[in-house]
Amino acid sequence: MAKKKLNVAMIGYGFMGRAHSNAYCKVNHFFDLEYQPVLKVACARNAEQIKTFADNWGYESTETDWRKVIERKDVDAIDICTPNNLHKDIAIAAAEAGKMILCEKPLAMNGPEGEEMCKAVEKAGVANTVWYNYRRVPAVTLAKQLIDEGRLGKIFHYRAVFLQDWTISAELPQGGQGLWRLDAAAAGSGVTGDLLAHCIDTAIWLNGSMKDVSAMTETFIKERVHTATGQKQAVGIDDACAFLARFKNGSLATFESTRYARGHKALYTFEINGEHASIQWDLHDLHRLNYFDHRDDSIVRGWRSVHVTDGDMPYMDKWWVPGLQIGYEHSFVHQVADFLDNVAKGKPTAPTFRDALETQHICDAVLKSAKTGSWEQVPS
Ligand SMILES: NC(=O)c1ccc[n+]([C@@H]2O[C@H](COP(=O)([O-])OP(=O)(O)OC[C@H]3O[C@@H](n4cnc5c(N)ncnc54)[C@H](O)[C@@H]3O)[C@@H](O)[C@H]2O)c1
User: Fold this and answer.
1) Distance in Å, CA 178 to ligand 1 centroid
2) Same domain, 113 and 206
3) 0.90 exceeded by the pTM?
4) Which terminus of the chain has fewer Cβ atoms in its 10 Å neighbourhood, N or C?
5) Domain total for the chain?
6) Do 38 and 101 belong together in one domain?
């Protein structure tokens, strides 16, 4: 049967522009879906560069002004892959024009912006999702399944870290492709919104809502040249953040993130300890889930390293034969597949804007606590 077309407009062509374009290209080869994404238009400010990107990935056309993209009648969905300070304006304009929206994380610069975005998509009734893609790494989805089945029992502890080491040089400027992350005006915050937002999204998905947080942050390099002015300017982002949290289910948590952990590139790990069992996951070994179950016979009890490649494990029936693993990019393919399937069924795709707003509120509470030095409630 002929597939229904869903015309996609991609705004931004950097890291995520490529990851998402790859997902749109692959999804129908592996998933049986009613809809097929069509790479209709790619948009960025530089006409030559966006043309090169569009030709490489097979986009039918290009634009240099995202507002023109939203005015186009031949676009069904807007994919927002720009720095964080543009998410709100693009999303609200897209919602008002009745477009579906797939927005990169973090949803917004802060909670109040995120709330405006939620209201806009809910008023317009348009399909929306936020690319917290780690939910759809099969081993992480399997962790969710094990927790929901009650295998861990009551949860006592949640522990997550996200460590990198790429901003240690004081010579690195703020601003520009990739480096906008060092500019608070473009990013909103540093590691809190960039890296911990991922850890928080996974955590609230697996372990429910948080009650309150107590945080500390540090900016190790206080001034950096800004690419826009060529001048040294104060750095407004948090280079590192560590926080304690209490979940509503009574469990205690620690979260830590930095871009100053020499030797670590993207060490995202989490561990959950329950009354019967524990789970560990590590992005550097993303197709494995470590599982310890105290109910095993004592003579064989120990940590199991589950290779998440069998056909009865989440998403894995769509890929290769058991034993052959998939990688990072597949998490984006899974999110597109779920989004298209849910559009066909008229169902929301988690995390929706409203789901992602909870993470935004937690990030705000973390940054506030780092300033006040007090425990801060997470607004509901
Ligand atoms: N889900 C994830 O794991 C993940 C990973 C990386 C980045 N992100 C998020 O994705 C977003 C983009 O990050 P990135 O790493 O791709 O950044 P990037 O710097 O690689 O790309 C940003 C793109 O935005 C474009 N852009 C900037 N201003 C624009 C404008 N006014 N109009 C049109 N295009 C414009 C730039 O040309 C560039 O192509 C951010 O919100 C980031 O937090 C998410």
Assistant:
1) 7
2) no
3) yes
4) N
5) 2
6) yes
Residue closest by Cα to atom 7 of ligand 1:
16
Q: What is the DSSP string of 76-109?
A: -EEEE-S-GGGHHHHHHHHHHTT-EEEEPSSSSS
Separation of CA 197 from chain center: 7
Last residue of a domain, one of 88, 107, 133: 133
Show Cβ contacts of residue 295 under 8 Å, excluding neighbours closer than 6 positions: 276, 277
Residues near ligand 1 (Cβ within 6 A): 11-17, 43-45, 66, 81-84, 86, 104-105, 131, 133, 177-178, 180, 194
How many whole angstroms from 304 Cα to the centroid of ligand 1? 38
Do 273 and 174 share a structural domain? yes
Do residues 194 and 241 make contact, with C-beta atoms less than 8 angstroms apart?
no
Distance between CA 253 and CA 243 in Å, rounded? 8
Tell how far the Cα of 193 is from the centroid of ligand 1, in angstroms. 14
14 CA distance to ligand 1 middle (Å) = 6
Residue 177, phi then psi, degrees to nearest 5: -55, 125
Mutate to test the pocket of ligand 1, among 11, 16, 331, 332 (most ligand atoms within 8 A of CB): 16
Say yes or no: 162 and 274 in one domain.
yes
**Atom 43, ligand 1: residue with shortest CA distance:** 105
Q: What is the residue range of 77's domain?
A: 4-133
Q: pLDDT 10s digit of each residue in the chain, 380 long? A: 799 999 999 999 999 999 999 999 999 999 999 999 999 999 999 999 999 999 999 999 999 999 999 999 999 999 999 999 999 999 999 999 999 999 999 999 999 999 999 999 999 999 999 999 999 999 999 999 999 999 999 999 999 999 999 999 999 999 987 899 999 999 999 999 999 999 999 999 999 999 999 999 999 999 999 999 999 999 999 999 999 999 999 999 999 999 999 999 999 999 999 999 999 999 999 999 999 999 999 999 999 999 999 999 999 999 999 999 999 999 999 999 999 999 999 999 999 999 999 999 999 999 999 999 999 999 87
